Amino acid sequence: MCFGVPMQVVRTNGLMATCEGSGRTQEVNLALIGEVSEGTDLLVYLGSAVRVLTPQEATQITDAIGAIEAAAQGRDFEHLIQDLIDREPELPEHLRPQAATPERASGKNSPEPDPSRSKAERGSKSIWEEDNEPSTAESSA
Prior knowledge:
The chain has a five-stranded antiparallel sheet, with helices on one face. 31% of the residues lie in helices and 23% in strands. The longest helix has 18 residues, at 55-72. It is an alpha+beta fold.
């Protein structure tokens, strides 16, 4: 599994920065986010800064990574994710309308097949293959 890690800028030189985080120092490319000042927290993935973080976000991500490491080693980790334990999960605003549709609530992701059509009418396709293919009008667009 690959994921970004929080690092803090200790020195800058144009679109490159020396950053520290999790006990290591690394040269980081800033081309995706632009120049930043010393002390800025960044989310770093494969040697590139992908986003500026608030200090709170940097702490939360560092704690979450620490919780994963602790759990993998069989150590106590709940104290690192306490902010997640005592709250009810919430969908982001842009996903809420989709979650409320009857199809999603029932767990159905595709339309029901039409079993009344005979195999001869469907050709060699099963009722599932037929109903999940794009129509010829859609596929020629």
